[in-house]
Amino acid sequence: MKARVFSGVQPTGQLHIGNYLGALKNWAEIQANYESIFCIVDLHAVTTYQKPEELRTKIRETAALFLAAGIDPDISSIMVQSAVSGHAELAWLLTCVTPLGWLERMTQFKAKAAAQETIGDGILQYPVLMAADILLYQASIVPVGEDQSQHLELTRDLAQRFNSMYGETFVMPATKLPAVGARIMGLDDPTQKMSKSTTGAGHAIGLLDEPKAIQKKIARATTDSNPGVDVENMGPGIANLFTIAQACDTGVTKERVAGMRYGDFKKLVADAVIARLEPIQKRYREVTAEPGYLDTILERGRQHVTPLAEETVRRVKQAMGIYTR
Ligand code: ATP
Ligand code: LTN
After folding, report:
1. Which residues have C-beta atoms less than 6 Å from ligand 2?
2. Which helix (H) or strand (E) holds 122?
3. CATH says 4-181+292-320 is which class?
4. pLDDT digits (tens, 9 = 90+) for 133-170
């Protein structure tokens, strides 16, 4: 039997090249070797307020981008989290074995709590729901960007804790980061992670951005004021652009960019990004033009994974002594 892979993206904001290079690209590359489940995590999205109409649209847009990025629905399942009730159900059961201190220590929680006056309980519970997503399918590999590493550690800690309290139940999931592009930084501020929830025209490159917009954003990206690329000592802005170009096109090497003037270097980076995104944008237009196609794919995904989820929930309930029919 093939090992199982699980990963997810929140249907919020504009998916950007950080999401692609950190996660989706890796998913497409490894899917043939595993039994893969790729999930649109709408229950995570509502931990912060989402306009209902927008959320409905974003769920479909995210599914279309999974397909556009090369997820093959004939070998992988694409599904929406809320369509399988086991996610929420297992999250509650795991909540009951989670020490509060573990959640309060999460850097994402601390950052979000610091940024808001009142903080929803969903933000605190976020990593438990994420652990439930993964453990529900007994996934052994979770391909994500580097920002999710701490949540994955918590997932393993929770699995271990549950297993020692109630007996061997969960498979221990490993984090799989991409070799290049695990943490793409903002173009406007290369000390901050590129993020969907950060606004500002020059921050992120959207997967559906037009070539002209991509050129403009990269041309304006923050760098130091050196005259050319010093490959042995790149500042954070140049290093980020180099990583982006390298992750888009393996032909971009240090030797090739050494000494390049920043204007020429930025053009090379923009060309690499535009060439990488072109087939994705074309495929996006195709999959969204076909009426009913996305619904068929999401329904197929739901049907495929539901029995797997039900089996885990049944085993967990049984282990805990909860009523099962
Ligand atoms: P938000 O700002 O709403 O948290 P996000 O941009 O972090 O959004 P998510 O939906 O949280 O996006 O992440 C989806 C996937 O993309 C995850 O695997 C995450 O690790 C990865 N990812 C997100 N941002 C980056 C980035 N800047 N570099 C590499 N990978 C990233
Ligand atoms: N928290 C993740 C999204 C996510 C996820 C998951 C990723 C929710 N459930 C399970 C991997 C496995 C994020 O990227 N912000």
Report:
1. 6-8, 10, 41, 44, 130, 133-134, 142, 144, 148, 151
2. helix 121-136
3. alpha beta
4. 999 999 999 999 999 999 999 999 999 999 999 999 99
Which of 37, 44, 81, 109 for mutating ligand 2's site (highest number of atoms within 8 Å of CB)? 44
All structural domains of the chain with their residue ranges: 4-181+292-320, 211-285
211-285 matches 4-181+292-320 in CATH topology = no
Q: What are the Cα distances from residue 192, in Å, to 187, 240, 255?
A: 9, 11, 27
Distance 274 CA to ligand 2 centre (A): 27
Query: Which is nearest to 27 in space by CA: 84, 72, 62, 87?
Result: 72
The span from the CA of 12 to the CA of 59, in Å, is 8
Hey, how many other C-beta atoms are within 10 angstroms of the C-beta on 57? Answer: 12
Probe residue for ligand 2, chosen from 80, 148, 171, 197 as the CB with the greatest number of ligand atoms within 8 Å: 148
By alpha-carbon position, which residue is closest to atom 13 of ligand 1? 9
Atom of ligand 1 nearest to the CA of 146: 20
- The CATH superfamily holding the domain 211-285 is Tyrosyl-Transfer RNA Synthetase (1.10.240.10)
Task: Give the ligand at the shortest distance from the Cα of 13.
Answer: 1
Where in the sequence numbering do the catalytic residues fall?
112, 193, 196
Alpha carbon distance 236, 223 (integer Å): 7
Does pTM top 0.85 for this prediction? Answer: yes
Distance (Å) of CA 266 to CA 105, 229, 240: 39, 10, 11
Q: How far is CA 7 from CA 22, 134, 145, in A?
A: 12, 8, 10
Select from 206, 176, 202 the least CA-distant residue to 190.
202
The verdict on the CB of residue 194 being under 6 Å from ligand 1 is yes
Ligand nearest to the CA of 197: 1
Q: What is the pLDDT of residues 254-304, one digit of tens each?
A: 999 999 999 999 999 999 999 999 999 999 999 999 989 999 999 999 999
Distance CA 22, CA 229 (A): 24
